[in-house]
Specification:
Elements (H helix, E strand, L loop, with lengths): L5 H29 L3 H28 L9 H16 L4 H31 L3 H50 L1
Pfam family, one: DUF892
Keywords: Coiled coil
Protein name: Ferritin-like domain-containing protein
Length: 179
């Protein structure tokens, strides 16, 4: 389907975020298991429940407006999920991995915030007020999740990772000095 109207653009963007949410719903349990910090793990679990609700809201929008979403894969979220997988595979469990997981999760949140902001504006422009309200509710949840991730980073994860890194650097330097 080519995009020739605002309605086409709305459907395209809605299809894209629907795919993104589905991909994120599959990735969040793995992120939760990979987190060392229990508060971070709980934040991922909470966001999984929110994500399921957000998918339901998109379904509501589709039903309300009698739309057909396009079958597509969100390339942006696919890349972000791949980055998270790489973090899990390459950084040992601990504070540094947690800091990297938070950074990656915030990239995903910012993608979603941009997407839902656009969808809200398009819905309003098209006169889809009920859809705009549902999408705005999701936008606010995404902003709250981003804020919570920032708090987790600032309240410990980043400091713990920095301290662990400095300790590792001192250990490596001492080891080199002996040789």
């Amino acid at each position: 389907m080519s995009i020739k109207s605002m309605q086409d653009l709305f459907i395209h963007e809605l299809s894209d975020i629907y795919s993104a949410e589905k991909q994120l719903a599959k990735a969040l349990p793995r992120l939760s298991r990979a987190a060392d910090n229990q508060e971070l793990s709980k934040a991922f679990d909470k966001h999984l429940e929110e994500t399921r609700g957000q998918i339901e809201r998109i379904d509501q929008v589709v039903d309300q407006l009698d739309l057909r979403l396009k079958r597509m894969k969100c390339q942006g979220m696919e890349g972000l999920v791949d980055e998270a997988r790489e973090i899990i595979e390459t950084i040992p469990q601990g504070a540094l991995r947690d800091a990297a997981l938070i950074a990656g999760a915030q990239k995903a949140e910012h993608y979603e915030i941009a997407s839902y902001g656009t969808l809200c504006a398009l819905a309003k422009q098209l006169g889809h007020q009920d859809a705009a309200k549902l999408l705005s509710q999701t936008l606010e949840e995404e902003k709250a999740t981003d804020k919570r991730l920032t708090e987790l980073a600032e309240q410990g994860a980043n400091q713990e990772a920095a301290q662990a890194s400095r300790g590792g650097e001192r250990h490596a330097a001492a080891s080199e000095a002996r040789h």
